[in-house]
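TA notes, week 10

Several of you asked for a full example with nothing omitted. So below is the full record: structure tokens for the whole chain, then the designed sequence directly under it. When grading your own attempts, check the secondary structure regions first.
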């Protein structure tokens, strides 16, 4: 059987030279499909047929599309080609895509669970409120002429602007069923939740791919809390232990009701505004190459 490499040529870490090197590191019978539009990676994965393995070179949005397009249990190898590429890094793969390709070509596998947000699969996180608002504002900056998204510096600039607009104070605006009120909710399928450059941010610590979902949702957040949130995230503690913060792990279901429509992000992609989010753990969902 053949293998398939799905490539997003517009991902920030993908160019012709790097793609050629990745192809050389993978088994020789690997077919290559380049995406040309959003959503196409899902279609390619859905129509992959009886392939032995699927490799994905792109960013977290491309990985998410493939996870949502899979129709059968085929091993998937996620190769870092985006600006952050949280999923392969959380799986322990090298940050260099060629080194990661050599690793996944060895064929070692691991079974992991996934999350679902209103039915849409996610690999590492799906937040409602603040982090989703930041994702949306970065997207609104547009892309460069070659199709690439803004990087970490732009994200930091947008984050500072958002904090200034709110006077760095976020009040309760949603309800987590059975857990309490919160300003925003971070739901994770693994730790770390995300990265800031080379730094891992374990904002919802203790979550494992093999278990259920984790949630961290502070009732309020002020300017005084922000440095501590980042510091604790780097240390792997998030805001756990802070009075008024919802924190729970290994959950099968989390239901969030919003006071008004709020943005939702799924694996770092804007999923639109929602007034309710039903998060569900899909345990033992997919085989990944590690």
């Amino acid at each position: 059987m053949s293998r398939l490499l799905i490539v997003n040529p517009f991902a920030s870490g993908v160019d012709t030279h790097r793609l050629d090197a990745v192809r050389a590191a993978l088994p020789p019978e690997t077919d290559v499909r380049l995406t040309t539009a959003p959503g196409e990676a899902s279609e390619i994965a859905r129509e992959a047929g009886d392939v032995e393995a699927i490799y994905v070179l792109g960013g977290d949005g491309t990985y998410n599309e493939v996870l949502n397009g899979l129709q059968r249990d085929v091993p998937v190898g996620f190769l870092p080609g985006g600006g952050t590429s949280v999923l392969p890094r959380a799986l322990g793969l090298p940050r260099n895509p060629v080194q990661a390709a050599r690793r996944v070509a060895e064929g070692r596998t691991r079974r992991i669970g996934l999350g679902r947000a209103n039915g849409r699969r996610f690999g590492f996180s799906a937040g409602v409120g603040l982090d989703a608002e930041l994702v949306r504002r970065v997207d609104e900056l547009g892309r460069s002429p070659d199709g690439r998204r803004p990087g970490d510096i732009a994200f930091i600039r947008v984050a500072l602007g958002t904090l200034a607009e709110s006077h760095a104070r976020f009040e309760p605006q949603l309800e987590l069923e059975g857990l309490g009120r919160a300003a925003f909710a971070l739901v994770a399928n693994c730790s770390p939740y995300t990265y800031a450059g080379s730094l891992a941010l374990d904002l919802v610590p203790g979550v494992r791919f093999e278990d259920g979902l984790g949630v961290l949702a502070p009732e309020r957040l002020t300017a005084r809390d922000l440095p501590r949130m980042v510091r604790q995230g780097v240390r792997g503690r998030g805001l756990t232990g802070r009075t008024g913060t919802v924190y729970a792990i290994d959950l099968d279901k989390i239901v969030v009701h919003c006071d008004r429509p709020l943005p939702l992000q799924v694996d770092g992609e804007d999923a639109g505004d929602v007034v309710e989010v039903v998060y569900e753990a899909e345990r033992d969902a997919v085989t990944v190459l590690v």
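The first strand starts at residue 3 and ends at 7. Use that as a sanity check on your answer.
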